[in-house]
Amino acid sequence: MQTSTPRALLLKRSLAAVWHPCTQMKEHEWLPLVPVARGEGCWLYDPEGRRYLDAISSWWVNLFGHCNPRINAALHDQAGRLEHVLLAGFSHEPVVELSERLARATGGALGHCFYASDGASAVEIALKMSFHYWRNCGRDAKKRFVSLAGSYHGETLGALAVTDVALFRDTYAPLLMGASQVPSPDGRRADPGEPPREFAIRCAGALERHLEEHHRVTAALIVEPLVQGATGMAMYDPEYLRRARALCDRYEVHLIADEIMTGFGRTGTFFAHEQAAITPDFLCLSKGITGGYLPLSLVMTRDAVYQAFYDDAVARGFLHSHSYTGNPLACRAALATLDIFEQDRVIESNRAKSARITAAAQPIAGHPRVKHLRNCGMIWAFEVDTNDPGFARKFFARALEKELLLRPLGNTVYFMPPYVIGEEEIELLASRTVEVLDALSAG
Ligand SMILES: *Cc1c(COP(=O)(O)O)cnc(C)c1O
Q1: Which of 52, 318, 356, 386 has its CA 20 to 30 A from that of 429?
Q2: What's the CATH number where 277 sits?
């Protein structure tokens, strides 16, 4: 009997006891839930040995493969020393070293790290810190935030208020603080023939008009630098960030760079904002920071911001906290991840790998249903021309049959593989994606 296999039993128990995230659970009446027993490199294996190429880095977090021996070794070592201690009033080597190394990665511009556990909490912290900074400076009116159309910054109530993805936001809109959106420089929205840079400049004009009118009440602009992930891998020209930085300076508005997805080499540079040669006032990091091992997030900021909280009055301090703030195991995983970046010269070697994947993806660009194949660093995306509202789920299910883990966002199919993806895996990813497209086109 099918239902008596260990695999089937696990699925049955999962559907009975686990409320899965980002899911209408009823869809699992027909959509496969995928049991995973172990991982190795770019591959995930189910309990019966069936394998899936993890082309989305398991929700955009994995950098150097599943069960990476170097990160495993660091975690084993740390587990034998110290698993956790509160960070209020206490300190430990991994959190200090991580803060120092990340500060160096910003050229010393962002000298202070404030820790949390998940991406949305980092966004909450950046929003609260920005507001509190202005308040400490006697600028209480600065309490509004502005984000880009289509932005995604997480799903807790503060982060959701600056998120502009209807599916996640609309239901909870009555609970959210008011925030403003300005047009996104998403290159796909440019006029026909308009170069992405010209379009970015045009969109920066809209930001300028917004700030001109509202700067007195605006604390910060929050952006996903270069790639807006959850809205459908919208990519834009760095010129937008340069202009946004200048406008924020001119109008005394903070610039929050949400690099939760784009950080740690994903866009081709260590941080995406480097491509615009700017420094944000707040930098939110998470996802890849631990190589995809453990929840860890942080907000980096300038010394000048830090100084505005440094005072005899307790309430002028930043009293925000999370139980697992700066967890030593997570920090060690992050340090092991930074070691790999240095030892393997990952940013450099990813350049050749990125070019190789772009070349392998050319048959996809030529597919009659495919539009806008685009790339930024280690992210590729394209739209599939279809009116089927069930496209994303059907593509996901078909891809699984071909050993690919791909999870389209609406009509947008994207690749965001672990950086350790090899030659054969690249070929397999590209050729089987074409097979899935063909199968779905045939109906
Ligand atoms: C994933 C993501 C978040 C939220 O992070 P969580 O850990 O899922 O809360 C915020 N911003 C961006 C750009 C993200 O991609």
Answers
A1: 386
A2: 3.40.640.10
